[in-house]
Structure formats: structure tokens, C-alpha cells
Design goal:
Length: 70
């Protein structure tokens, strides 16, 4: 990740926060969607935890997210 960002309940910035992933945290990618605004979001889990949620692909460093759509 390129900074510390909130995981969301859905693939939109307006969705509620689930948790905050700190800069440098390892994330496991599950799948991605492209929302109604054309923005790609990835469903992730923070490694070593059971915490999961949606993160904008804009926040993923050197990565476009997973290859599989949800």
C-alpha cells in the first residue's frame, strides 16, 4: 500500500469503514469489482488477521489487484 487506508464495507468511498490498514501491511487479495463510477476496488484481508474489506485499487502500491472478478 502507498499509505494507511481504511477498509470499507463496500466498493465505494462513501461506504462505512471496517478497519484501517497501516502503510506496509501485507494484504491478501480475493477478487475485484469495478463500481458504477468506473473505479476498481479489491476485496482484501489483512495478513495475520480475520479483518477484511474493500480497498480502492488506487491505494495499492505497484499492483492493480487480483486477476479475478468477484
Amino acid at each position: 500500500m502507498t499509505g494507511s487506508y481504511h477498509l470499507k464495507t463496500g466498493p465505494y468511498a462513501a461506504c462505512s469503514n471496517v478497519a484501517q490498514a497501516q502503510s506496509g501491511a501485507k494484504l491478501w487479495y480475493h477478487c475485484y469489482v469495478v463500481n458504477a463510477y468506473g473505479h476498481a476496488w479489491t476485496y482484501v484481508r489483512i495478513a495475520g488477521t480475520k479483518t477484511s474489506g474493500w480497498m480502492s485499487n488506487d491505494n495499492l502500491a505497484n499492483q492493480n489487484g487480483p486477476a479475478f472478478r468477484c
